[in-house]
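Hi C.,

You asked whether I'd gotten around to modeling the 389-residue construct. I have! Everything is below, sequence then structure, no commentary in between.
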Amino acid sequence: MQLQDFGFGTQIRKSPYFDATVRWGAAGFSVYNHMYIPRDFGDPEQNFWNLVNDAILCDVAVERQVEITGPDAAQFVQMLTPRDLSKMAVGQCKYVLICNAEGGILNDPILLKLAEDHFWLSLADSDILLWAQGVAVHSGLHVSICEPDVSPLQLQGPKSGQIMEALFGPEIMDLRYYWFREMELDGIPLVVSRTGWSSELGYEIYLRDSTYGDALWQRIMAVGMAFGLKPGHTSTIRRIEGGMLSYHADADIHTNPFELGLDRLVNLDMEADFIGKFALQRMRDNGITRKQVGLVIDGDPMTGPNTAFWTVNAGGAPVGKVTSAVYSPRLKKNIALAMVDIAVAELGTGLEVLTHQGETTATVVERPFYDPRKRLAATGAAAPAQALA
């Protein structure tokens, strides 16, 4: 396929890995953070099995970094998020929320602390660079905010550790979950973290010089092929199995952390002030009226993920919406994340879902649907014998 066949226009940026992904079989792209992201390397079910059985390499340069530096960087970053960062160490990553003054979620990035006065926010799909720069204008804090030349790859799957050891040597095996190191590979400057958007054992490799994009992709694939590595894309099947959020689908500016069960990411008792603190205090005190739940949807296997929000009914009356749905070939069920009224959020509650093929029944279940304690991602331990249904 010719590169010019991908025609979103010059306003959509290409990653440093774009040409390499096309050579390795990328046949379709979508747009995320104003950039092309590969979404099609063939059968999405095969991509899922490649991920959970071996390993895949994904171009996720769309996870743009917001770099915050300066004498007041730590204070400023704390102002952006309700998660307590007071004990965060240099070399550590944290999953954080960024909220507006009304407590609505603007983004759910990974925060990396490179130095006491140096941070990256590795973004989901929204313009937090502009938000942070706007907040800084009248903050009275001495910070510098920019988008650095940093482009992540994700190496994910049970064999990702073996591939990383072959690339970097045995010392990489000491890297703990949600920690990172500054490294080099063949002179290519990198940051390597034990994180990823797959719920599997995995690593993110942050390239710090885009001119090496093609060389880095080729080097990883050349080493990884002996371990079964395949080029791939982030798996909708696996991320829904793992209950992982997709911004704009499962969360947006009108969603608050309590509705998602993310209370652990909100510390209303710390002395530090942050944007949205008073609104989130009111939400905690007043309680929530809706809640994210897992659903098992009855019927034939879905042929792909939902491309619209499906209405959820109880007794014929609307009570919410399905935000993400897919068929899991491992669980042999249609599984979904949904936002529903709190009155119908109890486990075992029967509901109706209006899919693109008509109405069907569904049941509220625990989420995540598979490996709820994240043993695979955190330790690389064997998968549980029984998945939650």
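If it helps when you're writing up: Confidence is low (pLDDT under 50) at residues 385-389.

Thanks,
B.
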